[in-house]
């Protein structure tokens, strides 16, 4: 049954109704549409706010993380009072406050091969608010099998990308990225950082593509990859084409159902932080403190970036940034043990792989990174 606009909705959407490309029929299309947003974080926050404000009738939110203080500089759908709450619950409260005329479905659970098709069924489009490759390949394949478009977005420091995949006759994500990069090669926002306003801009561009698709107006980003550089305030657009040999949408496709995306992306048995398993052991902050106090023979290596030393540091640690490990491996030889740490431990798995490949056999990773040291050992060390 097609729902018509109520008297109150005519007033709420009055400025949008004035646009010829929208009008009453267009606004009713939006009211009768359903958009799935996977990830209620940096990209999902602005996208969900503007889609809710525009009058999308049903919005689905998938996320299983709680709101953290470190989220708030960019995840603007949440507030300080929401810290500790599930992101989907926090977002639903804010979105319904913005627009109580719409429906918000929440899924406080991981988006996986076992539940993705069921969760996304019945939606008209999927918006990607994630920050990892297994999730993106999963979203791409789900959208292809359901026959709905996938609005892609990604951010990194000062750079962002947007595109539309799986629109009929246009490429899918696998056409452009047939294979994921090696595990850990591309840092996440947690590892590399991101300018707070950047996800806002990229998320709003994604929301714009959603609305254009639902209204069937304008020129879609399908077949194009939009690249934004905030430092130069520059937009660039690159044409992308369908790959006839694509394993998903090509003429001789081999992917017929959802697969194990963690394994496909090189994360077998991955942890929730998407860090690949290695053969390295872990060491707790307490155990590291004992090693230091006992003057044991080991090398403590800080693999963070130089500018992070201005925030916090550990005495006796040698700074060797992650991307310099291979070239500076000789500095690690001659020690019975090497203990490595970063901010939270998310970068140490990749570092261990590099060290193992370069002949460093005994590697220990500081569990929880320097932030755990600040919490458990020395409150004078700044947590960030």
Cα distance spanning the termini: 51 Å
What fold name stands as the CATH topology of the largest domain?
Answer: Rossmann fold
- Over all CA atoms, what is the radius of gyration? 23 Å
Broad CATH class of the largest domain: Alpha Beta
% residues in beta strands: 15-25%
What's the quaternary structure here?
Answer: single chain
Question: What does the largest sheet look like?
Answer: 8 strands, mixed
Shape: globular
Helix and strand string, N-terminal first?
HHHEHEHEHEHEEHHHEEHEHEEEHEH
Instruction: Say which CATH homologous superfamily of the largest domain is assigned.
Output: NAD(P)-binding Rossmann-like Domain
Q: Give the class from helix and strand content and strand pairing.
A: alpha/beta
pLDDT < 50 stretches: 269-279
Describe the protein in words.
- There is one protein chain.
- By secondary structure, this protein is of the alpha/beta class.
- It folds into two domains: 33-264, Rossmann fold, CATH 3.40.50.720; 281-376, 3-Layer(aba) Sandwich (Oxidized Rhodanese, domain 1), CATH 3.40.250.
- Helix content is 31%, strand content 16%.
- It is built from 14 helices and 13 strands.
- Strands 3-2-1-4-5-6-7-8 form an eight-stranded mixed β-sheet, with helices on both faces. The chain has a five-stranded parallel β-sheet with strand order 9-13-12-10-11.
- Strand 7 (224-229) and strand 8 (234-239) form a beta hairpin.
- It is globular and about 75 Å long.
């Amino acid at each position: 049954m097609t729902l018509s606009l109520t008297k109150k909705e005519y007033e709420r959407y009055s400025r949008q109704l004035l646009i010829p490309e929208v009008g009453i029929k267009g606004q009713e299309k939006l009211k009768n549409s359903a958009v799935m947003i996977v990830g209620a974080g940096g990209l999902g926050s602005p996208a969900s706010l503007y889609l809710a404000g525009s009058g999308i009738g049903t919005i689905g939110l998938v996320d299983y993380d709680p709101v953290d203080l470190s989220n708030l500089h960019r995840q603007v759908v949440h507030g300080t009072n929401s810290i500790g709450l599930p992101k989907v619950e926090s977002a639903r409260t804010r979105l319904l406050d913005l627009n109580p005329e719409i429906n918000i479905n929440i899924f406080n659970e991981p988006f996986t091969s076992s539940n993705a098709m069921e969760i996304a069924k019945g939606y008209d489009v999927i918006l990607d608010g994630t920050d990892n490759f297994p999730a993106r390949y999963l979203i791409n394949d789900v959208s292809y099998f359901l026959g709905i478009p996938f609005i892609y977005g990604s951010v990194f420091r000062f750079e962002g990308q947007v595109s539309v995949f799986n629109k009929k006759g246009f490429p899918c994500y696998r056409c452009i990225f047939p294979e994921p990069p090696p595990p850990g090669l591309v840092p996440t926002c947690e590892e590399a950082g991101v300018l707070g306003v950047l996800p806002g801009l990229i998320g709003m561009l994604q929301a714009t593509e959603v609305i254009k698709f639902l209204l069937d107006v304008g020129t879609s980003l399908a077949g194009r990859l939009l690249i934004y550089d905030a430092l130069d305030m520059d937009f660039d657009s690159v044409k992308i084409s369908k790959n006839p040999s694509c394993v998903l949408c090509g003429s001789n496709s081999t992917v017929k159902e959802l697969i194990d995306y963690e394994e496909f992306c090189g994360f077998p048995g991955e942890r929730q932080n998407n860090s690949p398993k290695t053969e390295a052991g872990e060491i707790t902050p307490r155990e590291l403190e004992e090693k230091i106090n006992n003057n044991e023979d080991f090398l403590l290596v800080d693999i963070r970036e130089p500018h992070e030393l201005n925030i916090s540091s550990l005495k006796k640690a040698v700074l060797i940034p992650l991307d310099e490990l291979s070239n500076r491996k000789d500095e690690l030889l001659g020690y019975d043990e090497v203990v490595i740490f970063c901010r939270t431990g998310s970068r140490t798995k990749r570092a261990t792989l590099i060290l193992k490949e370069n002949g460093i056999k005994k590697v220990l990773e500081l569990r929880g990174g320097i932030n755990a040291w600040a919490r458990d050992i020395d409150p004078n060390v700044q947590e960030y």
